[in-house]
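TL;DR need structure tokens for one chain.
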Amino acid sequence: MTPTPLAVDRTLQRLGQNIALARLRRNLTQATLAERIGASVNTVRRMETGHPGTALQHLARTLQVLGGLGALDQLLDTQQDAIGLALMNEKLPRRARLPKVKADSGAF
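>> reply
TL;DR here they are.
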């Protein structure tokens, strides 16, 4: 496995810190959160430290418990994807043309 890029590693650490802070603000223990997401306490600890091997389902379940699942749903929303939309717009034709009419082949 290749090493995690520094920017990704830092983002995962910040996400983990934010999860821990949100959990504490809701007065939930790691054990309580683990039970509610169907995982072990060790999984919660690893997620809160930003471990890159944490399963995406545990993150999604944690966000659901903490009330932030909507934010995950908005990630890379295709209607808000400025880069994707710009790339698609570059491929648009300069002008619209009617389709060519093919001669009738005489077949039924």
